[in-house]
Each structure stands twice: as C-alpha cells, then as structure tokens.
Queue: 4 jobs
Job 1
Amino acid sequence: MIPLIEPALDGNESHYLQECIASGYVSSVGPFVERFERQFAEAVGARHAVACSSGTAALHVALRVAGAAPGQLVAVSDFTFIASVNAISYTGADALLVDSESTTWNMDTERLHDDVVRRARDGEQIPAVIEVVHVLGHPAQLEPLLDLRDRFGITIVEDAAESLGASWSAGQLAGRQVGTAGDIGCFSFNGNKIMTSGGGGMITTDDADLAARARHLTTQAKLATGHYVHDTVGYNYRLSNLAAAVGQAQLERLDAFLDAKRAIAERYDDWLWPLPLTPAPAASWADPSYWLYSVLLDDEPVDVDHVVVALAELDVQARRLWPPIHRQAPYRSAERLGGRTAEHIYRNGLSLPSSVSITPDEQLTVVNALTKTLSDASFRR
Ligand SMILES: *Cc1c(COP(=O)(O)O)cnc(C)c1O
C-alpha cells in the first residue's frame, strides 16, 4: 500500500532522543525546548515562538490571548479540520463559519470583510478575532483581514497547522511566511504534518507581550515570583524535551521536506492534467507548501467514496477531504456566511499520497490507479 502520508524519521531523531534520556531532561524543562523555539522562530521569520503540547493547544492559547472569550464572536473557516473550531469553543466564544473561495479553498476573506463592514454599519456584533486557516499548504488571502484589523481592531490568528513553509509571493505580504502575517500564528507537529515532534505545536508572534502571555498560560499561569502563585486559569500545555528533540531533528530537514513536497506536486500536476479533475490550488500570488496534495474530481464522473475504495484495492491510500464544519454535530447551529463552496470541496475533494519519501515510480502508480478508476463507468454517480 502506498500510504497517504507518513513522516520521515531518518535524521537526528534517535540521536537527540538518546541525548535527552542520557541527560535526564525528558519533561517540559530542557535544552531542546528552548533551542527548538529559537530555531523555529528563525525558520518562519517570527520574533518569538512558544512550544506547545499540540497544535490544538497552541490555537486555544493563541485565541485566548487574542481576546476570544464568552460572549465574543470568532470568525473561522468553514472548510477546515475540526480542531480549528474546537479551540474557539474551549475559550467560550462563538464561531462564525465563513465559506471558502473556490480558487484556494481557503476562507473567502473578501466576503468576510464586506460582512464585517456591514455589521459595523448596522450596529451588529463584529468578531473580536478572526482565525484564518491556511488549508492543505496554501496561504489564504490576508489583505482584506489586515484592513479589518486596522479599521476595527480585530485580532488576526493564523492557523498554519497544515502550511508550514508556505508563503505569499506577491502583494503587500510578498516574502512573508504563513503564521507571521497576522498577530499570532499556530503550527502543528502531529505525525502527519509537514514536520513532526510526535505530537506538538508552536505559537509564533512578533509581539513580545502576546508571547509572554501565551507562555504564561501554557505553564499553569504560574508566576515567577512566590511559591505556587497563579494569577489566572492556565494549562499544562508545554512541549516535552523529548518531543522537542524530535522536532529539532525534523526542523534541520525542513528545507528538504519542502523541496520534496513541491517536487511531488509538480509531478502530480504534470501527470494528472488529462484526467477529469482540478489539480491542487496554486494561486499566482502564492508559494504553497503542498502539505497534502488534493484534487477536486469533476462533478459528474464518480462517487468519491467509491474512488477511495477502488484505489485501496489498487494499493493506493487516498482520502476524502473534511465535511464542512457546519455539518458537524457541535456546530450545526453556529452562525455562518455561506457554505456552498465548502460543500462542493467536500463532495468532490480527494487527497493523494504525499509523503516526503514517495518516489516518482510510486506517484506513477497512483496516477495510473486513478486513471483506471475514473475511466471505469461503474463508479459513476
Ligand atoms: C492538525 C491541525 C490542527 C491541530 O493540530 P494538532 O497538533 O493535531 O492538535 C489544527 N488545525 C488544522 C487546520 C490542522 O490540520
């Protein structure tokens, strides 16, 4: 079976883990945590980085320091992994689900912009925070949100869990990496992400005060002075030194991972074009990192569930994309702006094997299997 996505752990991972064990530093204090934070901040171009026990924990803390709280509204992408939205619920705030644009599959930020301006004019509640998700390795259009920040003081949190290394290549943000353009960025090092620490996350920001408040919340809000004195409800969200050791080893190979992802995408683009599908998004103003190469099958040909099963029979592991958040039980009554594009992406979307270690031969196997499956009339809807 050609797996959908699996990590490459053949760098310094075991060497650094041995170092942790030999030194006795295995928990949330240790040299790897600090080193990982410093070098990660440098790699993405942020001033500060705070390591967390997961991407979801990073989002929870980032949203809280950004001002998400009971009674507040947080705008978020409708088409995303549910962790993006659960983190809003943890703060007690309400989610406003915003549909995708069809070009990048990311939040339709123009639409949100117009809606916020209208809400302000009509005296309706406006979001305190906008959590924009860069899905599947492609940056979202941020300019409309930066305008909202300037006009209404809305804080921008970027969920960059899937898009480490992606950047804008034109416009106001040209040269900036995702996770560094809003007020706070969040990343995930889960096993399936661009790089892994076995489980972990990172908060990035240029704002020293936000970084300090985030760090404080991840360490049980314990004050540096006094004995077990805590000034608010904090969390045990620090990354362990063991996890940071793996993260550090992976970070050393991040450039190679990103090169591999882009080469994989280029080959899929070259080989898939004759098929009845739309290839992975790549806007002219973006340099995507292609975390998980995903396509939209044309409307008519086939039922995507059947395609996944048929590909599995040909030893290719593919997977459908997420149902829109507005379909998930906890969020069925959430406020939303549109949702039809998210529905369409869900209905027709298919992710293809994208491990950094996949070979061109294996990619050909994937393409041939997909060609065979899509030409088989029995899969038609
Ligand atoms: C993976 C992911 C998260 C959560 O990260 P974890 O490390 O698994 O907690 C959040 N948002 C998005 C978009 C993700 O893909």
Job 2
Amino acid sequence: MSEFFKIDPRLEKLAEQAEALCAEPFERVEAIRAYNEEKVLRAFLDNRVSEIHLNGSTGYGYGDLGRETLDAVYAEAFGAEDALVRHSFVSGTHALSVALFGVLRMGDTIVSVTGKPYDTLEEVVGLRGKGNGSLRDFGVDYRELGLTPAGEIDFGAVPDAVRGAKVVYLQRSRGYSLRPSIGVETIGRLVETVRRVNPEAVIMVDNCYGEFVEKREPTQTGADLVIGSLIKNPGGGIAQTGGYIAGRRDLVEQCSYRLTCVGMGKEVGCTLNQNRPMYMGFFWAPGVVANAVKTSIFAACLFERLGFPVYPRYEETRTDIIAALKLGDAERLVAFCQGIQSGSPVDAFVSPEPWDMPGYDSKVIMAAGAFTGGASIELSADAPLKEPYAVWLQGGLTYQTGKTGVLLAAQSMAEKGLLNL
Ligand SMILES: *Cc1c(COP(=O)(O)O)cnc(C)c1O
C-alpha cells in the first residue's frame, strides 16, 4: 500500500501479482545493466576521462579535448571505430538526416528493409513534399521492402531488394507500430544476408530507443553506422539535448562534413557547457535504461492482466524500451495518458488533451512531465486517437517512479469506469 498515492486496492493486488511474475525478466534486465555499466566504465578508463574533459569550449571549439574524448568513449562502448556525439544535433531525426545526407550521393539508392521509416523521416527521404531539399530532390532514390505479415524482416526478399543499394537502412525499434522490434542478433543476420549480395552497401541502423537494452549494439554485429538521440537512452536522462552517429571511421567523417562543413568535420564545434551532462548521462545510461525497461515490462504485465493486448509481452526478450498497449478506444487512451501525467515529477498538475499535431492525420494525446523538454527516456506516453487505439509508453528514470506512473494510469482509467477490476 502506498502512503503517498491513492490506488484502488484491487489494482494494488494485481500490481503485486504482476511484479512477482516479472521477477525473472527483471533478473535478465539487471544482468544486462551490470554488463553495460562495466562496459561504459571501461570505456571511460581506457580513454583517460579527466576533469578537464568536463569543461566546455566556446567559439570554434578547436582542440576541444572533452568533445574528442567523448567521441572515443562512445566509439569504444559501441564497438565502433569512431563516433560523432554532439549537443548540436537538435534531435534524433536530425542525426539520422545528417547520416543519410552525409553518406548518399546523387544517383545512389537507399533501401529500407523495415518498411516505412519513422514518420519524421518521410520528408527527409522525400516521401512527402517536393522541392524542399529532401534526398529525392538531390537525386537519391528511395525504395522499401515491406515487413512480413508477422512484422518481421522479409529475409527471403532481402537479396533482390538490396542489390545495387548504396545504403541499406533499418529501424531497430517498432516506432508507432505494433510490429516487433528488431534485436541485435537479427540485425547481425541481416548484415550477413546483405553482404552476400552487396558487400559494398552501407548498413545504417536507426538505433533510437535501443541503446543498452541488450549487451551489444548493432555495430557489434556488423552494422556500419548506428544513430540515436541523447534525449533518449544514451543521454541517461541527464544530457540536455543532442544526438550521436557511431560506426566506420570513413563514414563518420562523411557525416561530420555534413554536420559542419567539408574539410572541417569533427575538428570544430564548441561544446559550451554540455560536456559534463553528456559524459554523466552516458555513465548513468545503462542503469537508467534498465529502469525504463523494467517499467515497460511491468506495464505490459499489469495491462495484460487487466485484459489488454500488449506488445511485447512481459516475458519476451527486449531490444528497446517501448511498451505498446492496445487499450481499444479513445476514452481509455485519454484516461491513461492523463494518469501518466499525474505521476510526473514536473507538470503533474496539468491535464493533457488530444490535439491536432502537425504531421499526424488524427488527434494525438501525449503525456510528458519531464526535466528535459520532450525527453522520452523519462516516463512518457503517446497515443494517436485512431486504430489500433494503442498507447506507446516509454521511459522511467527510476523503476519505482515508473511503476507509480503506470499504476496512476490504470487508476485514472478505473476512476472513469474504464477498467474491469
Ligand atoms: C525518436 C525516434 C526517432 C527520432 O525522433 P526525434 O524525435 O527526432 O528524436 C527516429 N526513429 C525512432 C524509431 C525513434 O524512436
């Protein structure tokens, strides 16, 4: 019984049962946390991280040792040759866009083997709009290979699909779909399949939400580039903004030429006061990711016991921090998100409402009461009010507060008579 939050006793009982069922999956998460915390510490030690690295530079940022060493720390932890970790990436989409424009040239083809890319990338590759400077405008052809009916990579069709491609692109996390996320081992299998027919292809992975959920990153099973956001997993809830690109040295350099300018690349870019939060965030990240994964597992288990389809199920192996809960109608989605918001450390007193978000074809409701604007490594939930009427839940800086947030979401539904208890 919580002394601080009013939760229906029947819900508390279900939560207790759910938590007991989660014991074994939680143990697996803790083992991965331990491994990754050591891995990151090793990378700090090997690169002789020192107090001077925590101070930032101004102006051009020439010779910023903090910036250079952080790149090396990321590269080592991800098993990559090099990395580009910058607060000046405004988001994950920006980092992905820089990687695509950095590597692709006129006449090249990019092939996505996980169906449509994340919504915000549709404009980048040129699926929407014309004359706006998309990859398509610059003469880069985009093709995609759809997923199988089970939502998996269509391995049988990969060889034909990737022939002649300059970039083979895949998205590890499910995004706003119910398809399964793609584990690091499967990415390794894809790399082998692609290399057999197209050894020159650059295999690029949208790694958003995936970092530190497994012991290895896709760069450790052969991917050439991985890309992600620092207000998600690798920022550990501490980085204030930013993104990263890690992988083959020559490709990272090409990306750096796109981020700054040709010739200058990684040699410039002041870090202002961002080195310390970026280092500290990376240090905390494996633990924070473990808390988020446990929150996600608990939510899946509880909501399954409440009778809702959940993706993935609580005992399934994870490769990202997302739980998709199919609540079935708009009323339940709204009540759920309002409950999540009511348990946020920041702005708990506001009540989110569905709104017409630019770029979406239905109303969307979002719950986010975060220390960092829009940070989804902090407990947050998003739900487009349309079929399949599912909410995508992610984050949780600590497990207990993540669990409390999930319970408050269920409580909010119960209070409106939207749960069968
Ligand atoms: C978050 C995310 C992105 C990038 O989104 P931003 O909001 O621009 O950081 C891209 N792909 C996936 C799968 C994501 O989850």
Job 3
Amino acid sequence: MKDQIKDKMGTTGLIFNEPLLWEKGSPGRKGLSLPRRDVEEAPLDDALAGDGPDFPDLSELDVVRHFTKLSQWNFGVDSGMYPLGSCTMKYNPKTNERQASIPGFAGAHPLLPESLSQGALELMHDLQGYLGEITGLPAVTLQPAAGSQGELTGMLIFAAYHKNKGQQRTKVLIPDTAHGTNPASAALCGFKAVGVKSGPEGILLPESVAELMDEDTAGIMITNPNTLGLFEDNIRQVADIVHQKGGLVYGDGANMNAAMGIVNFGDIGVDVMHLNLHKTMSTPHGGGGPGAGPVCVTPELDPFLPVPRVVKDGKVYRLVEDYPLSVGKVHAFYGNFSILLRAYSYILSLGKDLKTASQYAVLNANYIKEKLKSHYHLPYDRPCMHECVFTDKHQQEHHVATLDIAKRLMDHGFHPPTIYFPLVVSGAIMIEPTESESKETLDQFIDAMGQIAREALECPECLHESPQFPKVRRLDETAAARNPCLKG
Ligand SMILES: *Cc1c(COP(=O)(O)O)cnc(C)c1O
C-alpha cells in the first residue's frame, strides 16, 4: 500500500529540515556591508548601550534559503487540490492579481478627493451593479471586510428596518444547517438566535419555520446552499411565511459559486444577502484576510445601507453620506478596495461564463459524490450543489475515523477536506472540489479516497499511523493546540 502511494504521487520530494534562524549562522557573519566609516568612532549614549537585541549573525544566502525553505513547507491551491468544504479554495487566475497591482489603483490613497479618484469610484459603482445583477438584489454596499461582517451588517439592517417601523424585534431564526457565523452575527447584533431543525432530506421544512415564526422575530438567516451542500428547495415558501409575519429573510451567499447566473435570490424571497468575494470572486484567502463581504439588498432596504455610498451623479461619481436611515459606517473608508478590484476583473473576464463556472462547481461535486458513495456513507443521497458531505459510518465499524481518513489523504498529495463540520451529521467529511479542478485531478482524488476506504478494511492500524510521508507526521492535536511548538 505504501509503495503504491509513493509511486503514484511522489509527494515527499526534496523537503529540507530547517532550524530556527537563531540556530543558524555563526558569530561575526554578515548579511550586508556598510560603507567605510568617515567619522570618528564614539561610544553609544547610555540609553542605547548594552547588549542590544539577540539577533543571529547571518549571511544574505542564509536568510534567503531559510525563508525559501519555509515557503516550501506550505501547501496552497497553486500546489494541489484543496477540497476544503465551505471554504471554496479554488484557483484564482493570475490575471486578476495583475489588475489589482496596476499602479494607479494600487497606489491610490483613500483620502484622495473625488475628482482624482473617478476611475476607482466608477469601478466600485459598476461592481455594485454587477453584484446586484448576479444576486437579483440591486442595492449594494461593498464595505464589509468579510462574510461574517456582511452578516453583521445585514443584522444591523434588519434592526434598522424594524426600528423604522416602530418595532423592536428580539429573535432571529437560524436553521441547524446554517454556517456557524450566522448565530454569532445575530447575537452580536443583540438578537437571540433561535435554532430551527431541518427535515429528513437535509433541508428546511416550511412547517418548522411556521411553528417558530412570530411577531417578535426579526427574520431568518438561511445559508443557501446550506452547509450540507444542498439547495434549500422550500426557500420561497419559507420566505412567504417569514414575510407574512413582517420578518425579513437573510441569505448567506458565501457559496455563490454554486449559483451564479442560475439563481435569482431576489425572486426566491431573499431580502438581504452577503457574498464572499474572497471565496467566489478570485481573492486568495486564508490566514484571516483581507477579504470582502458585500451586502446586496432589495430596493425597499436601500435606505439602510452603510455610508458613504458611491453614486453616479450625471457623468461624475461621488461619495454620498446623506442617508438618514443608514446603519452608518462598517469599515474604514470604503472597504478593502484591492479585493473589489479582483472581483471586478474576475467578473469582466468571465462574463456569461460565470454561469459555466457555477455549473462546473456543481458538476464536480456531484461527480465525486456519485463515485464515492459506494465507499463512504452519504447521509443525504440527493443531488448536491458545490460540495458533498460523507461520514465515516462504514469505516467506524473498523475503528477508522474521519480524522484518519483526512490524515491519509496527505500521503496521497491532497489537502484534507473539511472534517467534523457541519455538526448536523456525525463524523462529517465535507468535500468541495470547486470548479477549477480537471477531471484527471478529480479522478486521482476519487482513486485516493477509494484506496483509503479499502485500506480501512485491510489495515485499519496503518490509517491510525497516517500520514506517513509529510515532513510532520501524526500530531497530538490537543497538545499541538495547547502547547504549540513553533520550531521546525
Ligand atoms: C466562509 C463562510 C462564512 C464566513 O465568511 P468569512 O469571510 O470567513 O467571515 C459565512 N457563511 C458561509 C456559508 C461560509 O462558507
């Protein structure tokens, strides 16, 4: 089995151990030469005297090799498939990076007067229009810096809307298949998050919502597609129930790469929705940002959007603060502009093919689902959207758990998928191949997952010892989190 893996991927490669910089070099070694002194040598004054910081003595080459080696310990979507469900780790075309570094944009100061930033303002104005068209919700703010901040902005809009009607509602309904940030955002805004159980098919049942929806409930937050990768088929009926009681519908659109050009969220009853530009629209993400989580709303909610807003006034673009019902400002200046630039470039470069991208995202996930369902337990066996969720139920009979399967995948050269999420299924393995992987890569992944399933039958203990080939083998996860060892 081990030999098979080695032959196949050649994953181990030339990976060098690398000590800390403090353990490298030798006293007196130098990374640069200063020009010859042309003044008399003089002692430092008292404040600066002493031993100084404990910097190691290194040459330029020591430093270059050190950081180059560390960079090679990394794994990213530029190195291989990264099927991390819910995160959309797709490949971002380099051309969008190039546009983001055009000097006129990259060097623009956010305090430049409007007259000197017409290009940037026009770009933001047009991007708002495109996002409005893609979601079917035409009023847009680009300010929020992340999906979760978009959610908070949406909740502020819920509160402002009800307040403007002279009401103060206290609760928000959140299905058990929602992303974890949803209840957190509702709570941060002062609402009580009320859980809604989804039905046997993994999607919301209108009757469960009808039972809980009342006139003290500000609305519902629906992740759609939900965290099981399933489309909420009953969303129109659910929206009607919520609207009848005066509530609003929030759509978590972080996974819009499943629905671009296919679903009009305005038509299916969503009032407020955020997008994750750093997932769907070509910004590399991870490590905490930066990102962008624009919020799109119905015309009725337009007056509540954050300020300043970019508006077109005749032929001129302006930043306008004068919206008395606005929830205010949610980000310094106008949001993370360079992320907006990448999204704009991504949308223009794909045009109508945005829809094709979504179709591939859905096709790829369904392909994996169908190919792997004979090996792994599929709790909801129905067409999925951009991701599919398996569990370790069959492998558990042989004492092999989701964690072992995920670790073994590294031996095959794949980044593990998201595991133990969503919480509604036990031992979840959540796979999002994204639209950017080829059929050959998907087949290799399927083959690796198939081999792992066979190994679980034949040699369960081998899986407990995985991964075998990466530089760092199985870690004690608890100790690793509690006492991180940051040395190589
Ligand atoms: C990623 C994600 C979020 C949170 O987005 P951040 O930009 O990480 O704050 C919210 N909802 C869903 C469904 C997501 O996948």
Job 4
Amino acid sequence: MRFATKAVHVGSETDQDAAGSVNAPISYSVTFDQNRQKEKFEYSRTANPTRLALERNLAALEEGRHALAFASGLAAETTLMTVLKAGDHVVCMDDVYGGTYRLFTQVFADYGMKFSFVDARDLVAVKKAITPSTKMLWLESPSNPLMKIVDLKALAELANSAGILSVVDNTFASPALQNPLKLGIDIVVHSTTKYLGGHSDILGGAIVTSRDEVHERLRFSQNALGGVPSPMDCFLTLRGIKTLAVRMERHCLNAKRIAEFLNSHPAVKTVLYPGLPGHPGHELAKRQMRDFGGMLSFELKDPAMAVKVLERVKVIIRGESLGAVESLIEHPASMTHASIPKPQREAGGVTDGLLRISAGIEDGEDLIVDLREALVSR
Ligand SMILES: *Cc1c(COP(=O)(O)O)cnc(C)c1O
C-alpha cells in the first residue's frame, strides 16, 4: 500500500468488531476479562486496543516494524532516554525544539547524562563531538525554528559506524514527507500533537523503530513509566491521520506561497524555507523529502516590528504549536525558545526579529492578504 492508503486504513480494519466498524473502536476499558478474550490484554497502561490500532498505523506510516504511542511528544522523548544510563553522552543538533533542549539540559543532565550541541549540517563537527561515552545522535530536520536541513543518510551512516543510536525528531516533516528509518536512522520520534493529529485538539507522541531490542526496552519503559495516551486521544490521532496526505499537500502549497511573498517583501531580511532555491538545504531537502513542508521562519529588518506583526494578524493565529489546520505565527525568542539562554539563542540565529509560521490549510490568498496588512510600516 502507498502512503495515503495506509494513512486511511491501517489500524481501522473492519474486522475488529462484530459490526464491521470502519473506525477503530474506542476501548475505554482499563482491565480485560482474561477468560473471554481472543487477544491478550491485561491492563490498559501495558496495552490497550485503541492505542494498539494507532501504534500499528504509526509503524506503517514510518515504514518501521514497531511503534509506541505516548501522552505527549515529551513523554515519548522522556521514555526514549531510558535506553541511556548515567555517564552516557548524547550529541544533539544545536537547533532543536526548545522543550527537547530543556528536557536534556534541565532534567537529564541532573541524572548524569552529558549533552553536546553541534550544527549537524557539519559532518566533521558531528564526528569530532563523538567520544567513547557517546551513545546517541539526536537530530531534527527541518529544524526548529531555523529550518536547517541535515543529511540524514550520511549522519545515519556516521552514527552506525561509531556504534551509536541515531534518532530523528520527524515532527516537522511528518511521515508524509520524510521517512528517516528508510535512510538508515534507528529511531524516529514524533510529537503527534502536530501534523499527525493535525487539529490542535490532542497532545500525543510516538516512537517508531525497526530495531527489535530497542523496541523491547522501550515497550518495557512505556509500561514502567506510564506516559500513555488515553483511548480517546488515540482515536482522535487516528482520525487526524486519515487526512494527513491531503492536508499536507495544502500545508506545503500555502507555505511555499507565503515564503515567496515574504521573500520579495521590503520589510523582510531573510526567509528560511527549504522550498526556496536559495535555501542552503534546498537540494538536500529535494533528495530526502517528498515536499518542503508547511513550516517557515523569516527575519524582519527591524526586530521591533516582530511584535507589531503578531498583534496585527487577523486570520493567522498568534500562538504556539504547529502542524494544524489553522495557520499559526509565533515569536521563538519570547515563546517556544524562551527556555534557551539569550546569548546562546542569538548566537544560534534565533534573534528577536525572527518569526515562525505554521501554514494551515486555509485559502492561501487570505493568508497573504493578512500578512501584507500586518507588515505595513506603521
Ligand atoms: C511540539 C514538539 C515536541 C514536543 O511535543 P509535545 O507533544 O508538545 O510534548 C517535540 N519536538 C518537536 C519538533 C515539536 O514541535
């Protein structure tokens, strides 16, 4: 089956209940009658039928053998870190989701894990950062919010030859546009809150891998730590996924249109969108992604204008998060990336004049009109 077909069908097969329901039944049962069951279920933290339907779907979408679903992206990340121990070292991409940075530096660092942050576009720098205690390489592409594209295939090979696990946070691209496991990456992590759920109405996370031993360890940790999603959230995520392929086409179309508009706007200094031919990762993105995605960032010539733009937008919503049907705009320096110390944030390129847009699925013309009016020099 091809992607859009799997998105609609896997996990929702009609032989799951006596009625032939076309949707996975929402199984609100914490325990199960072990005398009267065809499949073995014991307790819903360990396994739940609706969650299992979602996990099967997620594995299929990422072309992995196993998937685990969680209550949030960060619950997935927290669980994933249990493959490591105190003293282990992680080489992490410098431009990562703010919450990932916070989790590593303000939680796991206190438990004896070590983290180095490097620009993973530079393979030599990544190689140099790997020490004998390095156990994991953590990547994001496109990255958040600077839209850096890193060579997943080359980095997977590098990690593999160093004998360390490679992880990609694939939230920004979604499995509709990029499948890191097919490029040799060991583990994919998602915030399903974003494109997979797609409607800003659930929090969720996922881990997908084809490595049996990694999966077994993480399945144990999923149950032991308990950060699992509710059956209703699993159902809503599955429902969102059914339209992922068509939504993503519009997300990409609108993002490209906005990027081109901003690129020729006199108030804009730079536009960061891998779909623009001038983007340093354009050719690489063409190779490893099926389209360029719905996310873009741009820097204003006058940093003071950023707040004004946020206050003036009417259709585009000023808010955090991304990947949903409604377009969102945010200011990384004061919102999503506020947990990164200012000198480090600015040195990395997350300046006060930077704005990030998640292009929704509205009519693109309304989004352009909204931005044009928000960018007037008043
Ligand atoms: C939102 C996000 C997360 C965290 O996910 P939650 O569902 O909010 O816990 C992790 N990585 C990326 C890239 C994200 O955008």
